[in-house]
Specification:
- With 443 residues, the chain is of the alpha+beta class.
- It has 15 helices and 12 strands.
- It folds into 2 domains: 35-235, Cytochrome Bc1 Complex, Chain A, domain 1 (2-Layer Sandwich), CATH 3.30.830.10; 259-440, Metalloenzyme, LuxS/M16 peptidase-like (Cytochrome Bc1 Complex, Chain A, domain 1, 2-Layer Sandwich).
- It has helices spanning 5-24, 72-79, 87-95, 120-132, 140-157, 165-176, 190-195, 198-208, 224-235, 286-304, 342-359, 363-381, 390-401, 406-416, 419-430; strands at residues 31-34, 40-45, 51-58, 97-104, 109-116, 214-220, 259-263, 272-280, 312-316, 322-323, 328-336, 435-440.
- The strands form 2 sheets. The protein has a 6-stranded mixed sheet with strand order 1-2-6-3-5-4, with helices on both faces. Strands 7, 8, 9, 10, 11 and 12 form a 6-stranded mixed sheet that branches.
- α2 (72-79) crosses α8 and α11 packs across α15.
- 42% of the residues are buried.
């Protein structure tokens, strides 16, 4: 086949066209406005859906905890009060509910419910009721009931070192620094959860639950005009804090360049887990944008290594990439069955990092990473709310950059990145020794 300049140009334009076509498929129409009381609203209507997600984010999370109260944001998420609801309405809502959950993140707490579209008015009423319920509706009985559930959750998640109180706390502290607001896990300390009081929970509520500290999301099948009327009616009476919150400033995150080994937190965990992390730039930065592509490339390189011991069970890079308001985390975890394989696993991982640093990435790898990133975002669009969802794409963009469509802007920037852009990120971050911890199975 004779390759001419016109052939190359045609292939190049076809590639560009394909990328732009795929980008257009992940664009979401949305609307952002603010009620008179300061409550922010994001609407993302989609007539192709059958359900609608209603979610609110409270602008208070793990990073807002004081050291003596580590774990309180998560504990409060469990005891967040409800307003009374008519029993018939409540029964109808639950009958048409298709999902519900809550979660605490570094910079915010989220409360999610998903319903059949016809139940949206009831879902909005219930959601507004949670924000209107005063601190007095948190009772001692509720605190003690939820304490049992929180401690059971902590015990259950001890089987995963990265989520456990001790293991997760060690990773976060060593990644961001002990003095950094991100430097502890969501569970905090077990003893804190054993002793949080009714007054602690009510004080958190009184400090943070105000209209101007809330973002409300409605995503799915609904009529925007009708929903705006419902939101105005249900949410307009939520009080505002009446003060301008201080600008958030955090110390610079800096990971420890240590290698640690610990017994797995759970005595029944059959796996060994090795974790590497770097503290990296925040959400919204150019380097953060490039790290998503580097994550895909590193994942592919690690998977392609032919010499992994047979006991290796999982290799994951992207679940170790978390970008927050003021800092981020990038790394890898590998789980494996045989303790004796740890030395070879670490050698192979380090070899992969060295090869990236010395030999750089290829154009083919970069293009594959761009397509994987579009696929990752496309998968998030399949979920209306909660984790890895449309709400998360729009919400973190709004919360961290002031632009709900930042996810789309980031994709556009990623499509324009060159090999040299990724190489610079590799040079700056992967040449620094990471924090490494090995959790050794007790079995």
């Amino acid at each position: 086949m004779k390759i001419t300049f016109s052939t190359i140009l045609t292939l190049l334009l076809a590639t560009i066209g394909t990328s732009q076509d795929r980008l257009s498929k992940v664009f979401m129409p949305w609307e952002h406005y603010t009620l008179a009381n300061g409550l922010e609203v994001i609407l993302q209507p989609d007539a192709t859906q059958t359900d609608v997600a209603v979610e609110f984010w409270l602008k208070a999370g793990i990073s807002h905890e004081s050291p003596e109260q580590f774990g309180l944001a998560h504990f409060y998420e469990h005891v967040t009060p409800w307003s009374p609801m008519d029993s018939v309405d409540r029964a109808q809502l639950h009958a048409r509910m298709t999902g519900s959950n809550a979660q605490v993140r570094k910079d915010y707490s989220r409360y999610f419910v998903q319903v059949e579209a016809t139940a949206l008015p009831l879902a909005l009423r219930q959601t507004a009721g949670r924000l209107l319920a005063g601190a007095a509706r948190i009772s001692s009985r509720k605190v003690e009931y939820e304490r049992k559930r929180v401690l059971a959750e902590i015990d259950r998640n001890a089987n995963n070192p990265r989520w456990s109180v001790d293991g997760g706390g060690m990773i976060e502290k060593s990644t961001f620094g002990v003095a950094h607001p991100y430097g502890h896990s969501g569970y905090g300390r077990r003893q804190n959860n054993e002793h949080f009081t009714l007054e602690d929970c009510r004080a958190w509520h009184k400090k943070y639950v105000f209209a101007d500290r809330v973002v409300l999301f409605v995503v799915g099948k609904f009529d925007s005009g009708e929903v705006k009327g419902l939101i105005e009616r249900e949410f307009k009476d939520i009080p505002s804090s009446k003060f301008q919150p201080a600008t958030i400033t955090h110390p610079t995150a800096k990971h420890q360049q240590d290698k640690l080994s610990r017994l797995a937190p759970s005595a029944i965990d059959p796996d060994n887990t090795m974790v590497w992390t770097w503290a990296v730039p925040a959400f919204g930065t150019e380097e953060g944008t490039a790290l998503f592509l580097l994550g895909h490339i590193l994942q592919k390189r690690l998977e392609a290594k032919p010499d992994w011991p047979a006991s290796v069970e999982k290799i994951n890079v992207l679940s170790m990439l978390d970008l927050y308001r003021t800092a981020g985390k990038f790394g890898t975890y590998i789980t494996f069955a045989e303790k004796g394989d740890s030395i070879k696993i670490e050698q192979l991982w380090q070899q992969t990092i060295d090869e990236l640093s010395q030999n750089r990435i290829t154009a083919k790898e970069l293009e594959a990473a761009k397509q994987k990133e579009i696929e990752r975002v496309s998968e998030q669009l399949n979920t209306l709310g909660f984790q890895s969802s449309r709400v998360e794409l729009l919400g973190e963009g709004l919360l961290f950059t002031g632009q709900a469509d930042f996810y789309y802007q980031r994709l556009q920037r990623q499509m324009d990145l060159e090999k040299e852009d990724i190489d610079r990120v590799v040079e700056k971050w992967l040449r620094i020794s990471p924090f490494r911890i090995l959790f050794i199975s007790q079995i």
